[in-house]
Write a structure and sequence with these properties.
By secondary structure, the protein is an alpha+beta fold. It has 2 domains: 1-74, Immunoglobulin-like (Sandwich); 81-141. 45% of the residues lie in helices and 24% in strands. The chain has helices at 26-44, 91-112, 119-140, and strands spanning 3-9, 14-15, 21-22, 50-58, 64-73, 80-81, 84-85. Strands 1, 2, 3, 4 and 5 form a 5-stranded antiparallel sheet that branches. A hairpin with a 4-residue loop joins strand 1 (3-9) and strand 2 (14-15). Helix 2 packs antiparallel against helix 3. The termini are far apart.
Length: 141
Amino acid sequence: MPLFFFDIHDGNELTRDDSGVECSSLAEVGDKAIDVLPDIAREELPNGPRRRFLVKVRDDAGRYVFRASLTLDSAWIVENVRGEHQPGEDRWDAALSRTKAQVGALRREFAEDGFTSDMDDLDSLFSVAEAEVERLRRQTK
């Protein structure tokens, strides 16, 4: 059976798999990568309002062949609960920060998925979105 290596990024650091796991099919590779994500998230939480956990799988030649990610977003949807102000940053600014992070993540994912030849068209779209988020952030300050 072929050997696959499951590298894990917990939002802070990359842990490289040096031992690997034998998998009998590509479906099994995908299942194993996806199955590990909730466990990683449980071990790392809580640590901020937005966390992205990523598993990238390498084949025995060292080529990345699959990735799976799990993103946890949390945010207060009201300013006050029973007279107590919500902890953390301003809700509007937090929402715009999450939006900017999501646009950046989309840009990275398109590049990682091998669409670099199409990135010129996509980059202009992403740049417009990022500029609009920044305009809204400045407008409220």
